[in-house]
Amino acid sequence: MEHVRTFIQYMKPYKREMLIGIFALLVTDLVGMVIPWLLKQVIDLLPNDPAQSQLIGFAGWLFLAAGVQAVARYGWRRYLFGPSRKMEIDILNHLFAHFLTLDRTFFQKHEVGDLMSRATNDLRAVKDFLGLGLLVVLDAVVVIIGCLALMIYINPKLTLYALLPLPFISILFFTFIRAISIRHQSIQENLSRITSMVQENLAGIRVLHAFVQEQNEINRFDRLNRDHIDQNMSLAKMFGLFTPSLVFVIGVAAMITLWIGGKEVIDGTITLGSFVAFNGYLMMLSWPMMAIGYVINLWQKGVTAMRRIQHILDSRTALVQSEKEEGAFDIRGRIEVRRLAFSYPDSEVNALDGIDLKIEAGTSVAFIGMIGAGKSTLMQLLPRVFDAPQGSLLLDGTPISEVPAFVLRRHIGYVEQEPFLFSTTIRNNIALARPEASEEEIEAMVHCVHLTPDLERFPKGLDTVVGERGVSVSGGQKQRIALARALIRKPRILILDDAFSSLDVETESIILNNIRSVIEGTTTLIVTHRLSLARQVDRVVVLGEGKVLEDGVHAELMQKQDGVYRRIYSNQALAREMEILLK
User: Fold this and answer.
1) DSSP H or E segment with residue 144
2) Which end of the chain is more exposed for a tag (fewer CB within 10 A), N or C?
């Protein structure tokens, strides 16, 4: 019930509609109970040779009851099923919005396919439970109470005999309920694995083709699907025993009623009309009894799905949330690092170990070092992808944890080595950071990142759709589109995390010359393995094993005889000379 209460809040906006639906359902059930009673009156009247007008009157009442029931049935279908679909949309919107508040740590622990399954398959199960499941429960309660009351009114003794087999339903219920819950949990989890595999394979389709692994993945997918079928068949077999058992119990009750009730009609204890009405109400009871199995299915499936969705809704970002207003900050771009030590979640090794740096606003700094030196880690701490220890990272003199993440990121432009492009046009990808950007601003950014020659080869130019994750453009084109997306925001801090790795040296030089005017006054942090860039920045920081090994301008670092920077620079210069000679 704890999980159910969480979702009850989504019913409140549709309370009026649901009350109308419940009223219509009550009318449907109550009118349905009137019909056997009218038949009782007619049958008891027949031996008295009733007038034709009396029979026509009863026929009219039956027709009216059927008409009212039809209208009321339409009412509860509209006003109970309708809100359940609206609730599904509300929960999905809330879930999606919550996804966007979670940090990278959460998504590192959960597969995308599993999250998609929870947002689709599990949510559909919740909708069925909140809509159809609650409807069936309410319908069953009304019908059971109403029919039992009328049956007792007609003949209490016969009602007692008819109800003798019904305790077996409780035994069946408690026998099957736990096993059904376990099977539903297993089915939902296996469905998540299937969704995850499909998403992963589609995302990595080029790798599968490159390594000729299509058949292996087809076989693995087939095994997952067969497991899913086996689990569903196991559940179906259980309901194959449960539902017929219910029908059998109801059949036994009907048999007892026919045997004992028939004798009482012969003995004149009850009238034939009362006996027909009694059996009519008993048959009406058969639906709620059989619906128990259906409700159990919806209940267990819905609660299992609720539990899985609630796990996401209960998750919270690990980032410290600042409550300060946006107007309290005037981001200039001055960065200070004080004895920064940082390790990733679930890791005992420090990725950064005691770093001290001061970067003035508007300056440009190149960060170099071997793989695993901590360059990208430091860059990710600035936009609070992960949180640095309190007081170890400051922006304009303010601890970065006290700056709301949305304020901070609004002033940071970040370009990664492998940027993500959305499956839309080049224009929309560039304008993502500033949807209000004019056509002239977009074209200026295209020219700035030297993308104009590439667009001239595309028939649709800026309206070219880049495909899933930018599959239809090259790595260098993706990096330049991402760079244009970051620059159009006009950020106070620009982070280029090996953002030119897919570009040739000539194109890189052209872009750097073009963007100088755009990033003037912007604090620019460049992670690079190409030391030719180091001669064009204000300062170079050399990292190694999470520590600052060297810090200074290019000329100063080159004067250190045994310096790390000088050794790397000399090796790269020699490599370039060898390439020229080989050509």
Assistant:
1) helix 134-154
2) C
Structure token pair of residue 310 = 């609630």
For the segment 147-204, what is each residue's pLDDT rounded down to a tens digit?
A: 888 888 888 888 888 878 776 766 666 666 667 767 777 887 787 788 878 877 877 7
**Distance between CA 293 and CA 273 in Å, rounded?**
32
CATH fold for domain 2-314: ABC transporter transmembrane region fold (1.20.1560)
First CA to last CA across the chain, in angstroms?
74
| HEC readout, 494-530 | EEEECCCCCCCHHHHHHHHHHHCCCCCCCEEEEECCC
Which residues, 6 or more positions from 82, have their beta carbon under 8 angstroms from its beta carbon? 17, 21
Beta bridge partners of 525: 365, 495
Q: Write down the residue that tokens 């009602």 correspond to.
A: 159
CB 224 within 8 A of CB 196: no
- C-alpha of 45 from chain center: 63
Q: Is the pTM of this model over 0.85?
A: no
DSSP state of 110: S
Q: Are 422 and 432 in contact (CB under 8 A)?
A: yes
CATH topology of domain 415-490: Rossmann fold (3.40.50)
